[in-house]
Design a protein that fits this description.
Order of helices and strands of chain B: HHHHHHHHHHHHEEHHHHHHHHH
Oligomer: heterodimer
Structural class of chain B: mainly alpha
Helix content of chain A: 55-70%
Number of helices of chain A: 9
Chain lengths: ~200, ~475
């Protein structure tokens, strides 16, 4: 069962196999959570949206048909819930990767969880600055560009899948992606020499 | 000047490894000679490298992920797989759950119910207020003969006698004081029709005729029954008047107050003319003309003289002891057809005197004059009040001459001569007026003479209900 595709697992769950659904949750929980937490920029809100996403999958299991990849369907649900959450404006503030995870004062900051054991201290410092600068630049992207950038870079979805998820043509997705890359490249311009100079 | 080729458009796909083998090779070849693409590709790779550092994979919180996982599994286990559904059931479910379909179904149900009730005559819409129109006295007089004894059940809901004549139709039966013959006649017609609906005479309920009045009467709503029956009675009286007008009101050729054949052209309202002229007014030119509220009662009905054979047959068929000798199940339509005297009592299988006349015409045209003369004579005997136009009498005259009855032929010509002369003189418009108003223009002296003549020699048509009227 572990080697089954997402679609076959979903069909099995539609027929009553709860174990298949558990496998689906295990496979996609982390990736979907990363997309959601990058979108809504709040860990607690991201958990709620993640739970609601899988509950929607359960509720819509009877209507599921193999018209697209399961991941496309799953991210479409998650993205719509994120858009709804953003519209409600409850969590409009910009997320900071320096803030403790889950608002726990003892927990490390999100940026500190990036593992780079082989890098030197200077490089770590430069890398941290660059990462902070990159996070700020990503947060300042328009929503339609940010969601495409995250789906492409974080969730590693292809452009045609992203087009299905966001509901726009593939060329539009690529165009938004080019704009997002151009803005991020300009934001990182000042750190380019430091990155090249780092040992 | 920037030169952007199709291969340059593929830079993004190449950077994200979405180009297939051949396309990727072509772009690599293009990339070797395109500095712009090389520069942009370097920038994309730098941003991607920085994004990997800035957007690390985040593990969901362990504390909440366990609970979340358990909740999701519990919810997943709670869901029961839907039973296999066919397309037909899915469509039915979709239809039943759609608000528009549900509204349409409700509309059909309500509309169907209303339509069924309407077709059964059990649903009445509010009728617009109409001016009270009273029928002419002659109509009342014509309707009176078929009036049976009043029904006691209606007497309980009567209206006060000081109301207008049209409102007194539902007045107390058996209380004729203060009621005109028109009121009594209309009341009688209403009650008679209601009795026909209810089948009170035979004690049986005529199911096939049960209409709105019967329904109301059966359910105890006598006021509604009376109102509905009153409306039906008005229509019935108007229909009967039209049916009776032509044959009944046309006086016999020899008995007309005027010059023989002329009297036959008076029109439908000839019988009502004496009543109208007796009131000092002109006869109404339409059967729906409004009669004055204080219109006097028509002259009392004289004793019925022996009616022609055809009429006697009809009387025997319709009236017995002053009441309708008909089962309760007969329809009002049948009742009306029976009232039309000549149609119901034509001899030798002929339906109308007009048919007899046409038959006689055909015989005359076929030079079968003996038979034609016999048929003409039989027609005049059976239908003394049936008027044959002078032009239509010409074949009769010709046959009389052919058969050697020159004197009779001369009499016929002489009798027809005044009318022909009058028609030659009168313009068509005046002739039309003469049809409708001529009787009303007679002087009071002539009216008195006519009344005396009629009282001395009553009309040929007997009116059994008038004979029954004193018993009311």
């Amino acid at each position: 069962m572990r080697d089954d595709s997402d679609e076959s697992l979903m069909f099995r769950y539609r027929d009553g196999d709860v174990r298949a659904f558990e496998l689906l949750v295990t496979r996609h929980r982390k990736a979907v959570y990363n997309f959601i937490v990058r979108f809504v920029r709040d860990a607690a809100q991201a958990e709620d949206v993640l739970q609601e996403t899988f509950l929607r999958v359960i509720k819509s299991a009877d209507a599921y048909e193999k018209q697209a990849k399961f991941t496309t369907w799953l991210y479409t649900i998650a993205r719509n819930l994120c858009v709804d959450a953003a519209r409600r404006g409850k969590h409009r503030r910009a997320a900071s990767l320096d803030a403790p995870v889950n608002n726990d004062p003892e927990a490390p900051a999100l940026i500190e969880r990036i593992a780079d054991a082989g890098a030197g201290v200077d490089r770590q410092a430069i890398g941290r600055q660059m990462a902070l600068r990159m996070q700020e630049a990503i947060a300042q992207l328009p929503d339609e560009q940010r969601e495409i950038f995250i789906l492409r870079e974080v969730n590693d979805l292809q452009f045609n899948e992203i087009a299905d998820i966001v509901g726009c043509p593939e060329n539009t997705v690529k165009s938004r992606m080019r704009y997002a890359l151009e803005k991020l490249r300009e934001a990182l311009e000042e750190y380019r020499d430091l990155a090249q100079a780092a040992p | 000047m920037k030169v952007v080729t199709d291969e340059c458009e593929r830079l993004l796909e190449f950077a994200y490894d979405e180009l297939a083998g051949d396309a990727a090779e072509r772009f690599r070849a293009h990339l070797a000679g395109c500095a712009k693409c090389q520069s942009e590709l370097d920038g994309i790779r730098r941003v991607r490298g920085a994004a990997k550092a800035a957007l690390p994979a985040i593990e969901p919180p362990e504390a909440s992920s366990g609970a979340l996982h358990a909740q999701l599994l519990h919810a997943a286990a709670q869901r029961r797989p839907a039973p296999p559904r066919g397309k037909l059931l899915a469509f039915a479910r979709k239809v039943s759950q759609h608000p528009a379909y549900a509204a349409a179904a409700m509309f059909l149900l309500v509309g169907g119910a209303v339509g069924i009730e309407w077709s059964r005559g059990q649903l009445f819409m509010a009728e617009p207020a109409q001016p009270k129109v009273a029928s002419s006295p002659s109509a009342a007089a014509e309707a009176a003969p078929i009036v049976p004894a009043p029904v006691e059940g209606f007497a309980q809901n009567g209206t006060p006698g000081d109301q207008p004549a049209s409102a007194q139709i539902g007045g107390r039966a058996g209380a004729p004081s203060g009621e005109t013959d028109l009121e009594l006649a209309k009341k009688g017609a209403v009650e008679q029709q209601t009795r026909l609906y209810l089948g009170t005479k035979s004690g049986e309920r005529p199911m096939e005729v049960r209409s709105a009045p019967a329904h109301h009467a059966a359910s105890g709503h006598f006021e509604k029954a009376k109102d509905k029956a009153n409306a039906n009675a008005s229509n019935a009286l108007a229909d009967d008047r039209q049916q009776l007008a032509a044959p009944v009101t046309r006086a016999p050729r020899r008995e007309s107050a005027s010059d023989g054949l002329v009297g036959g052209d008076i029109g439908w309202n000839a019988q009502s003319a004496p009543a109208a002229t007796g009131a000092g007014g002109s006869a109404p030119s339409s059967p729906y003309a409004t009669a004055p509220a204080a219109a006097p009662a028509p002259p009392p009905a004289p004793a019925a003289e022996p009616a022609p054979a055809a009429d006697r047959e009809l009387q025997t068929a319709t009236v017995s002891d002053g009441k309708l000798a008909r089962g309760g199940g007969e329809t009002l339509k049948n009742e009306r057809s029976a009232v039309a005297v000549p149609k119901a009592a034509a001899p030798r299988g002929s339906s109308t005197p007009e048919a007899l006349r046409k038959r006689a015409d055909e015989l005359a045209n076929a030079n079968r004059c003996e038979e034609a003369v016999k048929l003409f004579e039989e027609l005049e005997r059976s239908y003394p009040r049936f008027r044959i136009a002078p032009r239509d009498r010409l074949p009769y005259v010709r046959c009389l001459r052919t058969t050697g009855r020159q004197a009779d032929a001369l009499d016929e010509l002489n009798a027809a001569e005044p009318e022909r002369a009058r028609k030659r003189q009168a313009a068509p418009q005046k002739a039309h007026e003469a049809h409708t108003v001529a009787p009303a223009k007679s002087s009071p002296a002539e009216e008195q003479a006519t009344a005396k003549k009629k009282s001395a020699k009553p009309e040929a048509k007997p009116e059994p209900a008038k004979a029954d009227a004193p018993s009311r």
